[in-house]
Design a protein that fits this description.
Blueprint: H1 2-29, H2 46-52, H3 55-88, H4 95-107, H5 110-128, H6 136-161, H7 165-172, H8 177-206, H9 209-214, H10 222-231, H11 236-268
Helix pairs in contact: 1-11, 2-11, 3-6, 3-8, 3-10, 4-6, 6-8, 7-8
């Protein structure tokens, strides 16, 4: 029993070390004076200044944020409609087809999705003249396509667990279906909507493969710019950018944990 109690913390510690040691080294070398990322040349914050003066990085970050926001919003709308159809209408002819269409992007390789969307956009441009080339619009549509699949799964799981008797009582009391949706259903599934939106936003912000297929001149996202820089050799300003992203994510996680802890205490009281 004693060996067992020692073994578990050791394995857990090694696991966390394997996960977070590369991140820690990246943060440390973002403050490296030297241009060589593997050679320590002294402490310096100059690469953060270089990063903030890099118009390519700043422009790509702004494009990525706009695309992620719009595609996540569109994904939530599509995912909510699909989730309602699958959970509230148990029997209709094309339910199996709709269910397959929703789950297919979850398991399909990004290369296949990107290539198929590229061919679709090229065919649409030849037939109806839209979209005129590849750019932000095509990336938003592409990201909303696979983001809607993830959002639909999250929202559907919440709708399945929801007590429908609350809606039925409201309808029996004379409330119209739209009033029931906005006053009862929407507040109940709001956490799932937020979770689905954040998931779609994160997936869009992180995507490289699909965006590479459907993007055009002037619409390079942040992952595409970082990947192009890494191919030429990792520079310290990329480490600085990664450190800033890690800091933002850490602040978000800590804020969420504090909010959850406060909510738990209120429920306990």
């Amino acid at each position: 029993m004693k060996n067992r109690s020692i073994f578990l913390p050791v394995v857990t510690g090694l696991g966390f070390l394997f996960l977070y040691a590369p991140i820690a080294s990246l943060i440390v070398f973002s403050f490296n004076e030297s241009k060589l990322v593997t050679v320590w040349g002294g402490f310096s914050t100059k690469w953060y200044g270089e990063l903030l003066r890099d118009p390519q990085i700043l422009g790509a970050a702004w494009i990525s944020l706009k695309i992620a926001f719009l595609s996540a919003t569109l994904a939530i709308i599509i995912g909510t409609v699909a989730a309602f159809a699958l959970s509230r209408f148990p029997k209709f002819r094309t339910k199996s087809l709709l269910n397959w269409m929703i789950t297919a992007p979850l398991v399909m390789p990004d290369v296949i999705i990107g290539l198929s969307l590229l061919l679709m956009f090229v065919a649409m441009q030849g037939l109806i003249g839209w979209p005129a080339g590849r750019g932000m619009t095509t990336i938003i549509i592409a990201h909303a396509t696979f983001g809607a699949a993830y959002a639909a799964v999250v929202i559907q799981s919440r709708l399945v667990d929801m007590d429908m008797s609350i809606e039925e009582v409201a309808l029996d009391l004379g409330a119209k279906p739209m009033r029931v949706f906005f006053d009862i259903t929407l507040p109940v599934i709001a956490p799932a909507l937020v979770s689905g939106w954040l998931l779609a936003f994160t997936l869009s912000l992180d995507d490289l493969v699909i965006a590479s297929f459907v993007s055009g001149p002037g619409s390079s996202t942040l992952p595409m710019v970082i990947f192009s820089k890494v191919r030429l050799g990792v520079s310290p300003d990329v480490n600085a950018l990664a450190t800033i992203i890690i800091l933002i994510i850490s602040v978000g996680i800590i804020a969420a944990a504090i909010q959850i802890s406060r909510s738990g205490k209120k429920l306990g009281n």
